Amino acid sequence: MVDVSAKAVTERAATAECRVRFPAAVAAQLRQAGLRTGKGGIVETAVVAGTLAAKRTHELVPFCHALPLDGIRITVDWHGERELRIECAVRTTARTGVEMEALTGATVAALTVYDMSKALSHAIVLGPARLLGKRGGRRDFGQVR
């Protein structure tokens, strides 16, 4: 793990997204059902899963620092007729950034959507997953919401 003890404690934030694309018939079925399946509410479950994943990123990614997270916000919205867009925004006051936490939250939320929808089709596609922006540290990147 990188030694960050010489870095200043600053406010840091990152936003990431992951997309979930459904076959047309599955998207129509999910829209009609209010994004609910036999397993329950997809959005609510994905938000909980993504939040838990962001909080435990240091347990999943070997060289990540355990960070005190000040806030996690996950949104799930339709993007077009067949695609869900999942966004995860994470904030902390620490010596290192939260890009990995935002990416982990977004991708695990997407995996949860897949898990809750796979009985309808295995042709669901995840991705791309990408960092939209980060603030704090040596340089800012993109846009943080």
UniProtKB/TrEMBL annotation:
Query: Could you mention a single GO BP entry for this protein?
Result: Mo-molybdopterin cofactor biosynthetic process
Q: Pathway, according to UniProt?
A: Cofactor biosynthesis; molybdopterin biosynthesis
User: Where does the Molybdopterin cofactor biosynthesis C (MoaC) domain lie?
Assistant: 1-137
The alphabetical list of record keywords is:
Molybdenum cofactor biosynthesis
Q: Which NCBIfam families match?
A: moaC, PRK09364.1
The role this protein plays is: Catalyzes the conversion of (8S)-3',8-cyclo-7,8-dihydroguanosine 5'-triphosphate to cyclic pyranopterin monophosphate (cPMP).
What is this protein called in UniProt?
A: Cyclic pyranopterin monophosphate synthase MoaC
Q: Which organism is it from?
A: Pseudoxanthomonas taiwanensis
